[in-house]
Automatic annotation (TrEMBL):
Keywords: Coiled coil, DNA-binding, Nucleus. This is HMG box domain-containing protein. It comes from Brassica napus (Rape). CDD domains: HMG-box_AtHMGB6-like_rpt2. Residues 139-175 are annotated as: Disordered. SUPFAM superfamilies: HMG-box (SSF47095). Residues 143-167 have a biased composition (Basic and acidic residues). PANTHER family: HIGH MOBILITY GROUP B PROTEIN 13, HIGH MOBILITY GROUP B PROTEIN 6. Residues 44-110, 168-236 bind DNA. Pfam families: HMG_box. Residues 207-245 form a coiled coil. Residues 44-110, 168-236 form the HMG box domain. PROSITE patterns: HMG_BOX_2.
Length: 246
C-alpha cells in the first residue's frame, strides 16, 4: 500500500496486483483440471461393437445353462469367429446405427460444453475486472486514508508547537499512577515482554485491584487534579495580564 507515493510506484503496485490475480486464476484453473478427471455423467457413452451386441444377445441364454462369466466370454468369442459375414451383418448394422447416434450425441455434447466454457470464461473475465476495480478502490481508499492521517499528524504537530511550555500539564489519572507503580515490577518479572502485553497485564491487575487500594490511587489523582486546577488558574491570570499590558 505504500507504493502509492508517485506514478511509477503506483504502476509497480498494479503490476503486483496483476501478478496476484493471475496467481489466483491459475490456482482456480488447477482445481478445474483436477475436477475434469472425474467422469461427466452427461457425456454420451461410447457405443459397443458388433461383437458385444451379439455377446449381449447370447449372454442371457448361456447364463441359463449355468455358465460363469469367463465361460460366457470364451464361448461367445468362439461363436463370433465362426459366424459368416452374412450372419454378422445384422449385429454390425446395429453397431453402426449406435455409433451414428453416439456421434450425433457427442456433437451436441461438445457444442454444449463449448457454450458452457465460453460462458464461464466470460464470467471469469467479468469477475477479474470486478476484482481489479475493487482492488483499485481499496488502493485509492488507503491512499486517501494515509493522506488524512498525514495531514492530521502535521496539524497535531503544529498545534503542539504552538503550546506554551509554561502551561501546566494535566495530571495523570488514578490508572496511570497505578501503571507507573507496577510497570517496572511486571517488566522485571517478564523480561522480553512487549509494551502492549505489559499494558494489558496492568489493565487486568487494575480491574482485580481491591476497592480500598483503588481508592488510594483515586485520592492521589484527586489531589493532583486540585493542584493542577490551581496552577492553571494562576497561569490563566498571568496570561490575561500579559495580554492586557501588551
Amino acid at each position: 500500500m505504500k507504493l502509492l507515493d508517485d506514478e511509477q510506484k503506483q504502476k509497480t503496485a498494479m503490476d503486483l496486483l496483476d501478478q496476484y490475480l493471475q496467481f489466483v486464476q491459475e490456482g482456480e484453473q488447477d482445481i478445474k483440471k483436477k475436477s475434469k478427471k472425474e467422469k461427466d455423467p452427461l457425456k454420451p457413452k461410447h457405443p459397443i461393437s458388433a461383437f458385444l451386441v451379439y455377446a449381449n444377445e447370447r449372454r442371457a441364454a448361456l447364463r441359463e445353462e449355468n455358465k460363469n462369466v469367463v465361460e460366457v466370454a470364451k464361448m461367445t468369442g468362439e461363436e463370433w469367429k465362426k459366424l459368416s459375414d452374412k450372419e454378422k451383418a445384422p449385429y454390425e448394422e446395429v453397431a453402426k446405427k449406435n455409433k451414428e447416434t453416439y456421434l450425433q450425441a457427442m456433437e451436441e455434447y461438445k457444442r454444449t460444453k463449448e457454450e458452457e466454457a465460453m460462458s464461464q470464461k466470460k464470467e471469469e473475465e467479468e469477475l477479474l475486472k470486478l476484482h481489479k476495480q475493487e482492488a483499485l478502490q481499496l488502493l485509492k481508499k488507503k491512499e486517501k486514508t494515509d493522506n488524512l492521517i498525514k495531514k492530521e499528524k502535521e496539524t497535531k504537530k503544529k498545534k503542539n508547537e504552538n503550546v506554551d511550555p509554561n502551561k501546566p500539564k494535566k495530571p495523570a489519572s488514578s490508572f496511570i499512577l497505578f501503571s507507573k507503580d507496577v510497570r517496572k515490577a511486571l517488566t522485571e518479572e517478564r523480561p522480553g515482554t512487549s509494551n502492549s502485553t505489559v499494558t494489558a497485564l496492568i489493565s487486568v491487575k487494575w480491574k482485580e485491584l481491591g476497592e480500598e487500594e483503588k481508592q488510594s490511587y483515586n485520592n492521589k489523582a484527586a489531589k493532583l487534579m486540585e493542584a493542577y486546577k490551581k496552577e492553571l488558574e494562576d497561569y490563566n491570570k498571568k496570561s490575561a495580564a500579559a495580554t492586557t499590558s501588551s
